[in-house]
Amino acid sequence: MKFLEQPDLPRYHPDVQVFEVKEEDGRHVGILYLDFHPRPGKRGGAWSGGFRRVYYSQGKRVPPVSSIVCNFTKPTADTPSLLSAEEVETFFHEFGHSLATLFSESRYRSRSVARDSVELPSQIMEHWAMEPALLAEYAKNYKTGEVIPAELVDKIRKSSLFNQGFITVEYLAASILDMAWHTLTGPFEAEVNAFEKSVLDGIGLISEIVSRYRSTYFQHIFSGGYSAGYYAYIWSEVLDSDAYEAFKEKGIFDRATALSFRKNILEPFGTERIEVQYRRFRGADPKIEPLLRNRGLDTQ
């Protein structure tokens, strides 16, 4: 793939960069807008959007227009825009969402991606962020050009495992609470806090750990599109962790594996069941062990 900056294309703000995305043979794939810096009136956070999703009209592919929006610190006259490790992972994450938009071969204007797999294209990209072979290409001191020391990378990796038991349990507790609310079969007539307590007591949640969200402000599951689906984040992580194992087995820059991921996952994403796509890519169902290893929870 080639990303060619096109300063003459229309932009909605002077800070925005516009890139044409092309295949190696020069065929047009789509347009990518990068909107990296905060400004008055711009909401916080980071996301990837689609100004236009791909579709086909009279047999011809109408290319997509995607965007990545972040709130990274703006450069100054003598200092570039420097990113934290977390911000780097955020960019890799949103770039994965944009790749899914750019590579899509859906024949219709809209596609409905199953909630429990929607984070696969984004979360798998995060695995590359701290790979030494890729760090050597981008993680360099802006004054000296020195590549980030291996010892520091090792410390960052180890620190990411701190409290993973606590983090995983509080997340799973929220996922179970979500399911409890959305599997009620009749009108709710109990008291909210009492119902919540009965659910969490029922799974043996210890007092030192509480659900990540209490029912009275659990917006994800009541107005945020994750009703009966808050588990989606960790199921997508099962998928992305297992899928990344395929790259580690063949080499993290293996072209054949990357092409298979594009053809079997990204291009048809949202047009058929994810388990069908995944088996074509991996040749088997996903395993949970890669996720446990990534979280430091595999004691074998």
What this model shows, in words?
With 300 residues, the protein is α+β, with helices and mostly antiparallel strands. The chain has helices at residues 85-103, 120-129, 132-138, 150-159, 164-182, 192-202, 219-222, 232-250, 255-266, 274-282, 289-294; strands at 2-5, 17-22, 28-35, 47-52, 55-57, 60-62, 65-69. The protein has two domains: 1-111, Collagenase (Catalytic Domain), CATH 3.40.390.10; 113-300, Neurolysin, domain 3, CATH 1.10.1370.10. The chain is built from eleven helices and seven strands. Strand 5 and strand 6 (60-62) form a beta hairpin. It is globular.
Could you outline the blueprint of secondary structure elements for this entry?
Layout: E1 2-5, E2 17-22, E3 28-35, E4 47-52, E5 55-57, E6 60-62, E7 65-69, H1 85-103, H2 120-129, H3 132-138, H4 150-159, H5 164-182, H6 192-202, H7 219-222, H8 232-250, H9 255-266, H10 274-282, H11 289-294
Helix pairs in contact: 1-2, 2-8, 9-10
Within the largest sheet, what's the order of strands? 1-2-3-7-4
Q: What's the CATH class label of the largest domain?
A: Mainly Alpha
Number of domains: 2
How big is the Rg?
Answer: 21 Å
Which properties best describe this structure?
300 residues; alpha+beta; Collagenase (Catalytic Domain); Neurolysin, domain 3; 5-stranded mixed sheet; two-stranded antiparallel ribbon; 7 strands; 42% helix
